[in-house]
Amino acid sequence: MTSTDTNFRKSKHSIPIDILDDLCSRFIINLPPEDRGNLVRICFQIELAHWFYLDYYCTDDSTKLNPCGIREFAAHIFQHVPQLREHIRNLDEVLDNWREYKQTVPTYGAILLDTDLTHVLLVQSYWTKASWGFPKGKVNEDEEPWKCAAREVLEETGFDITGLINKQDYIEAMIHDQIVRLYIIGYISRDTKFQPRTRNEIKACEWFPIADLPANRKDMTPKVKMGVSPNAFFMVLPFVKRMRRWVSERKQKVFRRTRHKSMGEIESCNGKNKPISQGLQNEIKEYQQNSEHKYKNNHGGHSNTKNGNTANGNRKGGKMAKRQLFTPQNMHSNNFSPVNKDNSPTNDTEENSYVMNFVAPSWANFRFDRRAILECLT
């Protein structure tokens, strides 16, 4: 009897049979026929089952199960599955070959988000019963990471992301000594038809609300909102928080761009108003000159200017009388008019009346029609 057999016999009852049945039905027995004879491929599935066991069964107070290492867990699986029992004697060698292969083979895929950045596309495998994850897979030899991600997404969903990938926009995690990199692809219509290209690999492709995904193992939000156990998303958990952060940052950038665009429209409107402002300045200047001229005439001692009856005075006075409109601010002042009601010159405060609060008459009630201005700019 080998040391492996001895160690297994000492711990064979540490995992109940019903739990082993559940784990094997989720991850092992539904493997495609071409993978059932590949021990390395089986070890990857055993690793997924081990993670699931540690995350959900060992943390459940009702089961009171103790955590175990991958080697002890693999021994239970190899002994429990009839097709694997013949390899139990070589378990150490099988695990060594698997570890060596795993260290050189990262996994690449994509996080597909809808147009509102509120839903994410998840896929369900045939051999991972009731579990959901991102479309991803192992990289081939000499294959670039982003090309591997595009290939895997195309195989598992039928959707080509080759022209949508930003090679610098991804989330990467080291999960149990394995590199997993997921490129983020946003703004995909939820009306897109997803059709997996590989047989007996992907069972379903569905959109899930990002807000309803579990943030930790004990988060019961998906159970309450969707009727799905949080255990079904154990392969998604390591990416949920960073995915939400990415969405939040992207929405803030869109908001800032929209705000800057609006401010740009206002600045454009201000630029268009420059000729109007110059015309206003010219009119104010003309008004000041006319007021100064009349003041000098009224204090010059000429008899023909006493009542402002010169030709020039009539012209200027008429113009001033016609356009003499004042704002409410000026109306509250006692010196709101440069002349008295009897058209006689005022005292020394008259000079101040020409200098103090006045508004160009033609612009007293002017209002910008912002909508019309913006329509002209578009």
UniProtKB/TrEMBL annotation:
Region: Disordered, residue numbers: 293-348
Domain Nudix hydrolase: 103-234
Location, primary (coarse class): cytoplasm
GO annotation terms (biological process): deadenylation-dependent decapping of nuclear-transcribed mRNA; nuclear-transcribed mRNA catabolic process, nonsense-mediated decay
Polar residues composition bias: residue spans: 300-313, 326-348
Cofactor: Mn(2+); Mg(2+)
GO molecular function, one term: 5'-(N(7)-methylguanosine 5'-triphospho)-[mRNA] hydrolase activity
Subcellular location: Cytoplasm, P-body; Nucleus
Job of this protein: Decapping metalloenzyme that catalyzes the cleavage of the cap structure on mRNAs. Removes the 7-methyl guanine cap structure from mRNA molecules, yielding a 5'-phosphorylated mRNA fragment and 7m-GDP. Necessary for the degradation of mRNAs, both in normal mRNA turnover and in nonsense-mediated mRNA decay. Plays a role in replication-dependent histone mRNA degradation. Has higher activity towards mRNAs that lack a poly(A) tail. Has no activity towards a cap structure lacking an RNA moiety.
Protein name: m7GpppN-mRNA hydrolase
Species of the source: Bicyclus anynana
Originating gene: LOC112050140
